[in-house]
C-alpha cells in the first residue's frame, strides 16, 4: 500500500483486517483467506482490564522503587509518577478511539501503515516486537533467580526452562487460556499491592505498631530533607524511568482484535487505567516514603519487604518473593502474547511471509508463537554470553521503543480524526471519541516526543537514545531494501494452504 492509497479512506473493514470472516464484506477468496488466519475473540472485559494492569505492574515497582525514591526523594518520585500517569492516560485516550474504530490485532503498526506510511508501519512493528522480545529474555532469567531463594542447590536454568515451558503452553492452548492465566497472575499482584497499601496506611496512622516508633509515623519522612533533596535533575531522570515502567498499558490495543465487544470493553479498560495507576503506584510510593527514611529505601532489599518486616508480618520476604515471581510470570505471559501477535500481524499485512499468519483450529498462530519464543530465547542467550555488548544494546533499544510506539499512536489518532472529518463524518458518529480532542491528542504527542528527545540530557541514558535513533534508520533501510527487492522480483502472492 502506498502513502496515497493509505489516505483514501479511514474506514477499513475491521473483521478482514483482524482475520475475522465478515460475511457482509469481501469476496469468497477473502473469506477463504480469513478462515486460515482466524483469531478467536475469546477475551472479555475483565481480562482486558487485568491485562492492561498486568503489563505495567512488574518488578520495577516491587524491587526498583526504593532506588527511585533514593535518587529523586519522596516528593520528587511522587511527582514523577503523577506526570507519567498523565502522559500514559493521554496516550490511552487516543488509542481508545483508534482501537474502537478499527479493532485490529497488532493495531499499532496497522494504524501507522494506514495513517503515516507503510515504511513507518514496518518500523513500529519491529520496535514493538523488540520491546517484548527483550523483556522475555530478562523475565525468563528473573524467574530462575527468584526460585533460588527456595531451591538454592538447583541450577537456575532448570527453573528458567520450566517458566519457558509454562508460558509457551499457556499461549499455545488458546487465547482464552492466555487471558484467564493473565487475569489470575495480575489479580495476585493487585491483591498484594492493595494489602500493602492498607497495612501501610494503618501503620502510618499508628493503628498498627511499627518497630522503632512509639508514635504514629505520619508523613514526616516525606518532607524531612526538603521537597527535592538531591535537586530537580534526578526527578527528570525519574520521569524517563517512569515512562518505561508504564509501558505495557498499550497492550489494550494489541488485544482489541481478540476481545468480545471491543466497543464497550476497550473504553472501560482505558478509563480505569489512570486511577488504578495512581492508586497502585503512587499509593505504594507514599506508603514506602512515609514509613522508610528515603536514604535507606534503595539499600539492600525490596522496600515492600522492609515495610512488612518492620510491622512484624511473618515470612515477609517469602511472601514478596512469591508475588514478584507472579509478576515475572505475568510479564512473560503478556510479553509472549504481544510478541506473537505482532509477528502474526506482520504476516497478515504481508510485511513478512504470509504463512506466519496461519492459525490452527483453536485460533492460535503457532508459527508466529514459535518465532516469538525463538526471539525471546535469543535475547536470553545474549544476556548470558554477551551481556555487556549485544544484550546491553537490546535493553537500550527496548526501553525507548515503547515511547516511539506511543508517539506513533498519538499522531495516528490526529491524522485519523482529520481524515474522518474530511470524509464528511462528525465526531458524534464515532463509537468512542477521544475526550478533549485536539488538546488531548497533541498533548500526548508533544509530551511523549519530549520524553524521547530529552533523554539526551541524562548522561546514563544518552547511549539508549543514540542506539534507538540508529536502529530506526536501520529499520527504515531494511523496509526500503525489502520493497526494492519485491518490486524488482515481482511474484504471485503466497497463498496459505
Automatic annotation (TrEMBL):
What InterPro entries does the record point to?
Answer: AA-permease/SLC12A_dom, Amino_acid_permease_CS
Question: What is the designated name of this protein?
Answer: Amino acid permease-associated domain-containing protein
Q: Which PROSITE patterns match?
A: AMINO_ACID_PERMEASE_1 (PS00218)
Domain Amino acid permease/ SLC12A as annotated: residue spans: 47-493
Native species of this protein? Bifidobacterium stellenboschense
Q: Which family does it belong to?
A: Belongs to the amino acid-polyamine-organocation (APC) superfamily. Amino acid transporter (AAT) (TC 2.A.3.1) family.
Provide one Gene Ontology biological process annotation. Answer: amino acid transport
Q: State the annotated membrane topology for this chain.
A: Multi-pass membrane protein
- First-listed, main subcellular location of the protein, grouped into a coarse class: membrane
Entry keywords, A to Z:
Amino-acid transport, Membrane, Transmembrane, Transmembrane helix, Transport
Localization, per the record, is:
Membrane
Could you tell me which residues belong to the region Disordered? Answer: 1-33
The membrane spanning regions, by residue number, are 50-69, 75-95, 115-137, 157-178, 190-211, 231-253, 274-292, 312-332, 364-385, 391-416, 437-457, 463-481
